C-alpha cells in the first residue's frame, strides 16, 4: 500500500510542477477581470494589503448594493470598505474577514448586514469563480468552501485542475491576459455597486409578486456569528447590526421573519451592540427607491447611506 501511494505521489509531483506556471498565469489574468459580478477587486485588495480600513461592511448583496462606503467615509472621516458577498450568508462573509485580517490592519468598527438572508447557508457555492485565483493551497478558503456543492477535493491542491472545463475562466483569461491591471476600471468601488433605477429603465413590473418563503436558519451560522461577536468584544472592535431597507410588501411572504429578527435582537442585548432595523422605515415603504423587493436602487442607496451614517454618529 505504501509503495502504491508513493508511486501516485511521484506521478503527481511532476504534473503539478509542470502545471503550476500555467495556474499562475490563468489566476493572475482572471483576477484582473472587471466584468459582472465584479468580485475580484475586493479579493485583490485583501491579498495585496490594500483593503485596510477603519470601518468594514459585511453582509449579502443587500450590503453590497445598499451601503456606499464613500458616503460613510466623507461623514465619518474614516476609511471604509464594503465586503458584501453576493448570494451568501455570514458563513462566507466571515471567510472574507479572516482573509482580510491576514493581510490588513484590524478595523475599529464593523457593520454587519443583519437580515434573514445572512442567517442561511445555501447548499451550492454561488459565484464560485470568485475563489479560483486565490484557492490553490489556501487552507482557509478550503475550510470555508468545501461544505458547499462546488469544488472537488483535488481542486484545492492540484494546480490548474479547477480551471479545466470552466469556459468563463478561459474566456476572461484570454480577455485580460495582457491588459494592464492599473488601466482597468473596476466594476465595484471599494466593494460597492449602485443598482439602476427600474423606472428610468422602463421596468414597471410589480415587485411584490412572489410565493411564501420559510427562512432556513442555519444553526452553525448563528454559532459562528456569536463567536465572531465574542471575538470583536474581546478585541475592542465596535460592531453595529444593520437591517437595511427591504420593500415592505416583501415581508409578508417571509413566514418566519420574526424568528430572524429575534436572533439579532437577542444578539444586540447579549453583546450590548446596536441593532438598527430600517425594514419598517420610510424608505422601505417607497417603491421608487427599489430595484427589486430586496435591493435598493442608486437613489435609495444614497438616501439610506446618509441616514445610516447619521444614526451611526448618534450611537457613538
TrEMBL record:
Domain of life: Bacteria
Keywords: Membrane, Transmembrane, Transmembrane helix
Transmembrane segments: 6-26
Key word Transmembrane helix present: yes
Name used for this protein in its record: SGNH/GDSL hydrolase family protein
Species of provenance: Winogradskyella immobilis
